[in-house]
Design a protein that fits this description.
Length: 435
């Protein structure tokens, strides 16, 4: 096969994070601690996972970085935007995810990460009231200011490349509206006309990033880059985009457990999922309009794994319910509780209960590292548009719904897609089937 030409990861990679809350600061602190040898980046595929390359006598298992050229942790520079002005050290302490002893050794570096003013519209996140906000006359002005931020950061920090990743709150639901979101020129016209109903602030970040040669990753369930206009821009600019919503706790369990029912040909009557969460994400999701965005994302997982058309006897009538409850005492320590009503031989009912007491930001942090490093890799490999091989990390993977394409949500099929992409970019054969 013809080997993909992947430019080496030379120079510094600027990772610009939208949001400087629990997830972002846990990510930054962990990377800074790991490169001092004071912590281990556990949970990161790019740092730990090994992939088989070659067959027979040629078979070997290698870390990703031994197959492809990945940016080293030492070459990462962090920046961020946030509605609150506190630096990354103050924000990490406030988030109460990490212990003081795991933050203080990199305090000096974290204090230098001061959030740029956020492009923000309170109508999209009514529970947030920070004052570190840009004064934007229009959505187009918002775009231009973000572009300037990216240019300034890149120059000031001597970065060879930039990746932008969204780790801010979930916006209110913006349904796909074809007259505006369907084409790039209509999207731009709406931004210039200051259409605040159809143009979310996150779309301004994505548009600005792509115009500044930076891959963009959507870590919340926002509509943002999941529209044909953004796909068109990503293809014109030859840039990777990925999204949406980090797959951390409950949906990770769902995408890994539902295949058990499928391969064992057990039926499912209902799957009830509830969460209690107390951090800023939980506060924002306590607003019904914001929760609806998350609900759409979380509900999409099951139906593409357990297909009613393929197995109507088993999955023809599933009742799927998702709930998120804001519960401040838990802070970042989320509890996801799942009840599955399944049935087996002759239709006899059984139940499965899964109780996942997880730490949301601890699970999310390695996803940010992997998504940014792999998006940068894809960019250097000349891959552009929707990066389906990153579906493994995402709750509601992007796909071309205008052509009837369905997302791949089965965790093991997603893992095969990921491994094959790494193999291909490393000049090896993509030798596993996704079926």
């Amino acid at each position: 096969m013809e080997k993909e030409i992947v430019k080496p990861a030379e120079g510094r990679l600027g990772i610009l994070v939208v949001g400087c809350g629990a997830v972002a600061t846990t990510f930054m602190t962990g990377v800074l601690m790991a490169r001092k040898g004071l912590a281990k980046p556990i949970g990161s595929m790019t740092q730990y996972d090994k992939i088989r390359v070659g067959r027979g006598k040629e078979k070997k298992y290698l870390h990703y970085g031994d197959i492809v050229s990945l940016t080293k942790l030492d070459d990462i520079v962090f920046g961020c935007w946030d509605v609150y002005p506190q630096n990354a050290y103050q924000a990490a302490v406030y988030a109460e995810v990490l212990k003081q002893k795991d933050i203080d050794p990199v305090r000096d570096e974290l204090e230098l990460i001061k959030p740029m003013k956020a492009a923000f519209d309170k109508n999209y996140a009514k529970r947030l009231d920070g004052d570190n906000v840009k004064d934007c006359a229009t959505r187009w002005d918002m775009v231009e200011q973000i572009r300037q931020d990216i240019r300034d950061f890149k120059a000031k920090n001597d970065c060879a490349r930039i990746v932008v990743i969204w780790a801010a709150s979930t916006e209110i639901y913006v349904p796909y509206y074809e007259p505006i979101h369907g084409k790039l020129d209509t999207l731009v016209a709406a931004m210039k006309a200051d259409d605040r109903e159809h143009i979310a602030p996150s779309m301004c970040y994505a548009y600005a990033a792509l115009q500044e040669d930076a891959p963009f990753i959507m870590g919340a369930p926002n509509t943002t880059v999941d529209i044909p206009a953004m796909w068109q821009l990503a293809e014109e600019k030859r840039l990777p985009i990925a999204g949406k919503d980090f797959k951390t706790g409950q949906t990770l369990v769902k995408s890994g457990f539902a295949p058990i029912l499928k391969v064992r040909n057990l039926g499912l009557s209902g799957w009830f999922s509830t969460n209690i969460l107390g951090n800023r994400d939980g506060l924002v999701l306590d607003e019904p309009a914001n929760f609806h965005t998350k609900e759409v994302s979380k509900l999409s997982t099951l139906e593409t794994i357990l297909r009613k058309d393929d197995q109507p006897d088993l999955y023809g009538n599933i009742y799927h319910k998702v709930r998120i409850n804001y519960y401040p005492p838990r802070n970042d320590n989320k509890e996801g509780w799942d009840n599955l009503d399944i049935f087996g031989w002759m239709g006899y009912p059984m139940q499965i209960k899964i109780n996942f007491l997880c730490r949301d930001s601890i699970l999310a942090a390695p996803l940010l590292l992997d998504l940014t490093l792999l998006s940068d890799l894809a960019h250097r490999a000349g891959r552009y548009g929707i990066q389906r091989f990153l579906s493994f990390f995402l709750k509601s993977p992007m796909h071309d719904y205008t052509q009837g394409e369905e997302a791949v949500n089965n965790l093991f099929e997603q893992y095969t897609m990921l491994k094959n992409a790494i193999r291909e970019m490393g000049g090896y054969e993509a030798d596993e089937e996704v079926d």
